[in-house]
């Protein structure tokens, strides 16, 4: 090979490498492992994609190898198509043990042609019941979309394709509980037909099984507790983490507008407005709105 050709190849491979690093296309096994339903998990395309499937025997799930104390967690997801009533696809953060903290995205499947609901929830110290539900402005079964959870000392924000759909602020100074425990990143596909669709009245139709959900994007931007001395999230709020920089402390004007639009046009349930289930308005509800 002459030197001109050689340098061409060197440059070519450097470009490929830099691009791969930038797109953070890391293989599944680097950060994640299968947690249940092994034989219902397929790792595809050089471990850049995972398929979970569910039939009457089992669903499946995977989770991060490490726990995190802050971060900007992201997953590309394409949820089961066809008739998927009762089928729940989840992407969430959760701590271990009793009185756990948890931040959830849950897609509630539906009969063919009916809209799929995206439910979010926030558990603090074992206490959940903070459901919000939206219908999406696209068909989440047709393509991959990006679902993200920002978690720093100031706020927790759920995003769909970079549009904020939920904000949970750190208002501990006025008595609102805020997650403090380290959490793992999890994803799963499971049978939720006791509650998920029409309040549990529409059941999973197993003649449509197997149901399949697809996941991509296994890079994790998080503060892992491996290198931290204590198991408390507090050490993960340092300025060395980019998701703790001031532009992540609150939504900017543009994001606020997008968020308000989602609430107006797409939100169809907010626990803050449910006086039957929550006769006393939860403290965060008084302040979480902008
Ligand atoms: C919440 O914010 C307060 C400051 O208002 C801070 O002292 C505290 O560490 C934060 N809590 C968490 C869990 O991030
Ligand atoms: C988070 O980062 C900012 C700078 O980006 C810094 O001012 C702030 O003190 C940091 N928070 C903590 C708890 O270290």
UniProtKB/TrEMBL annotation:
<keyword id="KW-0326">Glycosidase</keyword>
<dbReference type="InterPro" id="IPR016455">
    <property type="entry name" value="XTH"/>
</dbReference>
<comment type="similarity">
    <text>Belongs to the glycosyl hydrolase 16 family. XTH group 1 subfamily.</text>
</comment>
<feature type="domain" description="GH16">
    <location>
        <begin position="21"/>
        <end position="215"/>
    </location>
</feature>
<feature type="signal peptide">
    <location>
        <begin position="1"/>
        <end position="23"/>
    </location>
</feature>
<dbReference type="InterPro" id="IPR010713">
    <property type="entry name" value="XET_C"/>
</dbReference>
<feature type="active site" description="Proton donor">
    <location>
        <position position="106"/>
    </location>
</feature>
<dbReference type="Pfam" id="PF06955">
    <property type="entry name" value="XET_C"/>
</dbReference>
<dbReference type="InterPro" id="IPR008264">
    <property type="entry name" value="Beta_glucanase"/>
</dbReference>
<dbReference type="GO" id="GO:0010411">
    <property type="term" value="P:xyloglucan metabolic process"/>
</dbReference>
<keyword id="KW-0378">Hydrolase</keyword>
<dbReference type="InterPro" id="IPR000757">
    <property type="entry name" value="Beta-glucanase-like"/>
</dbReference>
<keyword id="KW-0808">Transferase</keyword>
<dbReference type="Pfam" id="PF00722">
    <property type="entry name" value="Glyco_hydro_16"/>
</dbReference>
<keyword id="KW-0328">Glycosyltransferase</keyword>
<dbReference type="GO" id="GO:0004553">
    <property type="term" value="F:hydrolase activity, hydrolyzing O-glycosyl compounds"/>
</dbReference>
<dbReference type="GO" id="GO:0042546">
    <property type="term" value="P:cell wall biogenesis"/>
</dbReference>
<dbReference type="GO" id="GO:0016762">
    <property type="term" value="F:xyloglucan:xyloglucosyl transferase activity"/>
</dbReference>
<keyword id="KW-0964">Secreted</keyword>
<keyword id="KW-0732">Signal</keyword>
<keyword id="KW-0052">Apoplast</keyword>
<feature type="active site" description="Nucleophile">
    <location>
        <position position="102"/>
    </location>
</feature>
<dbReference type="InterPro" id="IPR044791">
    <property type="entry name" value="Beta-glucanase/XTH"/>
</dbReference>
<comment type="function">
    <text>Catalyzes xyloglucan endohydrolysis (XEH) and/or endotransglycosylation (XET). Cleaves and religates xyloglucan polymers, an essential constituent of the primary cell wall, and thereby participates in cell wall construction of growing tissues.</text>
</comment>
<keyword id="KW-0134">Cell wall</keyword>
<keyword id="KW-1015">Disulfide bond</keyword>
<dbReference type="GO" id="GO:0048046">
    <property type="term" value="C:apoplast"/>
</dbReference>
<keyword id="KW-0961">Cell wall biogenesis/degradation</keyword>
<dbReference type="InterPro" id="IPR013320">
    <property type="entry name" value="ConA-like_dom_sf"/>
</dbReference>
<feature type="active site" description="Nucleophile">
    <location>
        <position position="106"/>
    </location>
</feature>
<protein>
    <recommendedName>
        <fullName>Xyloglucan endotransglucosylase/hydrolase</fullName>
        <ecNumber>2.4.1.207</ecNumber>
    </recommendedName>
</protein>
<dbReference type="GO" id="GO:0071555">
    <property type="term" value="P:cell wall organization"/>
</dbReference>
């Amino acid at each position: 090979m002459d030197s001109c050709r050689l340098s061409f190849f060197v440059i070519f491979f450097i470009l490929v490498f830099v691009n791969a690093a930038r797109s953070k296309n890391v293989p599944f096994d680097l950060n994640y492992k299968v947690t249940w339903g092994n034989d219902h998990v397929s790792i595809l395309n050089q471990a850049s994609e995972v398929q979970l499937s569910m039939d009457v025997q089992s669903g499946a799930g995977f989770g991060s190898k490490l726990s995190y104390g802050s971060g900007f967690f992201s997953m590309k997801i394409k949820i089961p198509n066809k008739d998927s009533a009762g089928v729940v696809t989840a992407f969430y953060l959760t701590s271990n043990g009793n009185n756990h903290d948890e931040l959830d995205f849950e897609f509630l499947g539906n009969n063919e042609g009916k809209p799929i609901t995206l439910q979010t929830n926030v558990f603090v110290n074992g206490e959940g019941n903070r459901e919000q539900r939206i219908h999406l402005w696209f068909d989440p079964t047709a393509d991959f979309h990006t679902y993200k959870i920002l978690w720093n000392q100031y706020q927790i924000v759920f995003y769909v394709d970079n549009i904020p759909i939920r904000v949970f602020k750190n208002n501990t100074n006025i008595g609102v509980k805020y997650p403090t425990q380290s959490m793992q990143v999890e994803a799963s596909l499971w049978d939720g037909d006791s509650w998920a669709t029409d309040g549990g009245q529409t059941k999973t139709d197993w003649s449509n099984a197997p149901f399949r959900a697809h996941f991509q994007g296994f890079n994790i931007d998080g503060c892992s507790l491996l290198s931290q001395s204590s198991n408390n999230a507090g050490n993960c709020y340092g300025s060395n983490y980019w998701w703790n920089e001031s532009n992540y402390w609150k939504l900017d004007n543009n994001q606020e507008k997008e968020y308000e639009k989602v609430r107006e046009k797409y939100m169809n349930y907010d626990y803050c407005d449910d006086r039957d289930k929550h006769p006393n308005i939860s403290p965060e509800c008084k302040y979480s709105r902008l």
